[in-house]
Amino acid sequence: MKQEIMTIVSQKKLAPRIFQMTLTGKLVDEMEKPGQFIHIKVPRADLLLRRPISINQINKEAQTCTIIYRIEGDGTKVFSELKAGDLLDVMGPLGNGFDVDCLTAGQKAYVIGGGIGIPPMYELSKQLKQKGIEVVHFLGFASKEVAYFQEEFMALGDTRFATDDGSFGVEGNVGNLLVSAIEKERPDAVYACGANGMLKMIAHVFSDNPNVFLSLEQRMACGMGACYACVCHVPDDESGTSSVKVCDEGPIFRASEVVL
Ligand code: FES
C-alpha cells in the first residue's frame, strides 16, 4: 500500500447520484487484484476521514484506474464536484482482492452484484474472462433509473438483471434470478458484492460450494487495520470475541469464514 497525489482524468455521471471517475498515477502500478479498494482523502479541511471506494477498472497501459461511487454524504458530494485535472490524495491499493486462481479455463463463475456493490465485479469479470473462465453476471438495481454499466457487463458474458420495482429485468432481487439459474446448472465459483441481506442469501443458496467469495460492505475509518471500526464476527466463536477486520483481512472472505 502506498500513498500518492493522483490526477483526475475524467469524471462523468452514470445515473442519479452515481459517478464514474478515472484517475492516473504511479499507484496504478501496484493495482493487480480485482476487489481491492483505494482510500481517498476528501479535499475539504473539515472532513477528516478518508472514503474507501472499490476499484472498478485497472488500465496498466494508460496507467489509469476507474472508480464508481454513489453520493452518500458530504465527502462523496465533494468528489462529484471535481473536474479533470484536479488532484486527490489516494492511499492504496488496500484489501485482499478476489481469488481468481481457484478456477481454471473452461470452468464457470457466477458474478453477482447489487446496487453500488456492482463496480468491483467488472474488473473481476474482465480478469476471469482473460483466464478463459465463463462468467455469468447477476446484477440487481433498485430501478431502471439507477441502473448503470449494463452494456459493459453484457460485452463480457451472459448478464441477467433484476430490479426491485420490476422496471428493468426480473422483478425483485437477484435471488429470484439465481433460483431459476441453479435449477439448470451449478457454478464452480461464486463471487458477490452488495448489501448484507444479499450476501446472506447467496451464502445460503450456495452453502455446498466451497468457492463462494463475498465482498463485505462495512463502515471503515482508518482503512488499515488500526482502529477496529470494521470488524465482522467469525463462525464457531464460543467466546464471542473473535473477529476479522474487513479493511485489512478482507474485504473479501469465503462465505464459510464470516458471520453475516
Ligand atoms: Fe480501521 Fe478497519 S477501518 S481497522
From TrEMBL:
Against InterPro entries, the record matches this protein to: Cyt_c3_hydrogenase_gsu, Dihydroorotate_DH_ele_sf, Dihydroorotate_DH_Fe-S-bd, Dihydroorotate_DHASE_ETsu, FAD-bd_FR_type, FNR_nucleotide-bd, OxRdtase_FAD/NAD-bd, PyrK_electron_transfer
Source domain of life is Bacteria
Q: Where does FAD bind?
A: 51-54, 68-70, 75-76
Say if the entry is tagged with keyword Electron transport.
yes
| Binding locations of [2Fe-2S] cluster | 222, 227, 230, 247
Q: How many cofactors are bound and how?
A: Binds 1 [2Fe-2S] cluster per subunit. Binds 1 FAD per subunit.
Q: Does the keyword Manganese apply?
A: no
Keywords (alphabetical) are: 2Fe-2S, Electron transport, FAD, Flavoprotein, Iron, Iron-sulfur, Metal-binding, Pyrimidine biosynthesis, Transport
One MF term from GO for this chain?
oxidoreductase activity
User: What pathway does the annotation place this protein in?
Assistant: Pyrimidine metabolism; UMP biosynthesis via de novo pathway; orotate from (S)-dihydroorotate (NAD(+) route): step 1/1
Q: Where is the FAD-binding FR-type domain?
A: 1-100
Name the HAMAP family for this protein. DHODB_Fe_S_bind (MF_01211)
Which family is this sequence assigned to? Belongs to the PyrK family.
What NCBIfam families is this protein classified in? PRK00054.1-2, PRK00054.1-4
- Quaternary structure (record): Heterotetramer of 2 PyrK and 2 PyrD type B subunits.
Q: What is this protein called?
A: Dihydroorotate dehydrogenase B (NAD(+)), electron transfer subunit
Organism (species): Enterococcus rotai
Gene name, Swiss-Prot/TrEMBL = pyrK
